[in-house]
Prior knowledge:
Helices cover 43% and strands 13% of the residues. It is an alpha/beta fold.
Amino acid sequence: MKKQNKNDNAANRKSYVGHVFNIGEKHEKEAVLNSLNSEWAKLHREGYIHIHDLDAYGLTYNCLTFDILNAFPYKKFEGLEAEETIVGVFDFIKELLAKIGNEQSGGMSFANFDKDFALIFKNLGVKVLENHAIFKACIRSLILWCNNTHTRMGQTSYYVTFCIGLGTNNAERFLSYTLLECFSCAGDLVYKPNIVFKVHKGVNRFPEDPNFDLFQEALLCTARKMIPTYLLCDCDADKNTDPEKLSIMGCRTRVVDNLFGESGAIGRSNVDNISINLPRLALEVDKEMHNFSLEDKVAAFKLKWLHVASLTKDILLDRYEKTCEADIDLFPTIREYKLTREDVDKVGLRENFKHGTLSIGFIGLSEAMEVLSGEKYWNNDSVYEVALNFVKYMRDYTDDLKTQYHLNFSLLATSGEYISGRFEEIDNKLFKSPIMEKGYYTNSFHVDVDSRLPAFRKLELEGPFHIYANGGCISYVELSEAPIGNAEGLDELIEVAVKSGVHYLGFNFPKDICKECGASGTFDVCPACGSTEITRIRRVSGYLEIQDYFTKGKMHESKNRKTN
Ligand SMILES: [Zn+2]
């Protein structure tokens, strides 16, 4: 999930620095591939796997949930008036995002924006509730900064996630409410940062809970803008972890279990991840064993996957090793503000990165099952069982790796930005199959975006996969238009999702904005002024983006989406 050449990354804008970066990046990716074991490089080049962020190989990790409370620089704000302190702290957040955004390859997250900053301001002696107006101005400015600042790698915006919803005192509630309000009112062309609302019983999930009103506010905001998304803390996968320790990246990376200490995301990273092209393996099996039984084909498919996964594991370990041995001076900001689980200046990079995850990802489960069985897995109970068992099989393998290598391996249900098109394009040259007709592969274990299944059914089908994909996953409900005024309907779907095992949930709907008059809705011709100049905002791999900047595969997918 990051910048690629041309429009491989949905968030890109053009600039001179970006142009130079792209040339360097392309060169660097090639140099890294050439330096790898030739069998590994071949797997990537031939489209069996995708090594994400190749240019960052051995130089940095992927993403991070900041441990912001660990060593917050209170001294910076000593002697300042309340107003100066508030502005100063928000400037500091922007500074952190800009610095870290250029020191790592992926997303950044605050696990509890409401609780943590309420505490920070309390420690600074600033009374949040007595400074309404300036807080509101600062939060609005922070949102606009996330939306408008394309200085990462000279061309792209920062992947930022603020998790909120658990803070129940007045200052905490004010911060959550204001973030939602400012985002909701910021206009249709403001679609960043990613906001994640943590849903938890006893705090906000039910009418008797103290933050139920905030949850409703969040749903109203989602009904307008597709944000927030929802981290469902009571689901089977997460219910035994303290919700305050949970966090998520917009790209869906989940970091919870830890072989080396307390579970939860704070101060921890996904270090590296590689995705496997499931349809490719299925297409090979089908070619070699066309008339065999489904059972035989699935057995062969598992063996092929195991072979590729074993090599993938070797690459992850090699990259992890190199990242642990990287130049510590590449990480000035996590060192200065001690944002990570361990103080790297005291214990070194390795002792810190061991808390991070190494993830094996996958895309195209739906197409793979269709190739093997001739059926959509979500349309046939026995194929559904095969699909679920296969995902469990992959998870068992990553669990075995944990024991074997004593590192935090996990299974990632990859979002598939860029690769959903890249894999399909390569496979299309090698195989003839109806699964290629749409021009992309379905991401992770998702039901096809054009399934037209009712939303609750889609959630019931996808829910059971969530507990296996411990490295991250999301389920989406596709709506035909903005459900403005129907937050209750969303509320009901969230309940279905929690009960089905979904741990992270998003609502998508097409959002079209007239470039001439600013009218918004779902249209090809503006109903207000008749213009056909339309800006289209869609969710791509977790983050909202303007469709003009989509990659080819994602463009096909977005056009193909049908409502649930
Ligand atoms: Zn118009």
